[in-house]
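Need residues for this backbone.
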């Protein structure tokens, strides 16, 4: 009876220990993921810089590049994503917030464009979640040009 209770205890505890160790070793978000940022805004006070400030800097490392350098680096595997802002992002975004109906050009110009490298689904999903969390926190904190 004593041996059976010990064996039964071992059988129930071993899977718990295995799962705990696996979660400790594998779990957690990746850190310092390189993301290329293409900011074509010419304005000194821009909403694009304000939006980028909401990103989690421990997980996402932003690298400011030109359009060609960003996509070349993403193609070569140096960057996991490219985040792009148009030339007049702040003015177009302001128009989108104020006016009810705007043209397709204004919608496109006031949008944040994100291209993800989908070769690693876990990193792509983590980046997508971090970007969504950052942009969802903007209304509660208030968007001010930097």
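Answer:
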């Amino acid at each position: 009876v004593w041996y059976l209770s010990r064996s039964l205890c071992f059988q129930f505890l071993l899977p718990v220990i295995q799962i705990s160790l696996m979660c400790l070793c594998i779990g957690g978000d990746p850190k310092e993921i390189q993301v290329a940022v293409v900011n074509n805004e010419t304005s000194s006070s821009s909403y694009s810089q304000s939006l980028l400030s909401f990103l989690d800097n421990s997980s996402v490392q932003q690298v400011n590049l030109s359009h060609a350098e960003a996509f070349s680096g993403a193609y070569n595997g140096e960057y996991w994503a490219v985040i792009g802002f148009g030339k007049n992002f702040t003015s177009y975004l302001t128009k989108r917030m104020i006016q009810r109906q705007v043209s397709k050009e204004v919608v496109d110009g006031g949008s944040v464009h994100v291209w993800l490298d989908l070769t690693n689904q876990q990193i792509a999903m983590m980046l997508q979640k971090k970007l969504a969390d950052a942009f969802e926190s903007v209304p509660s904190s208030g968007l001010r040009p930097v």
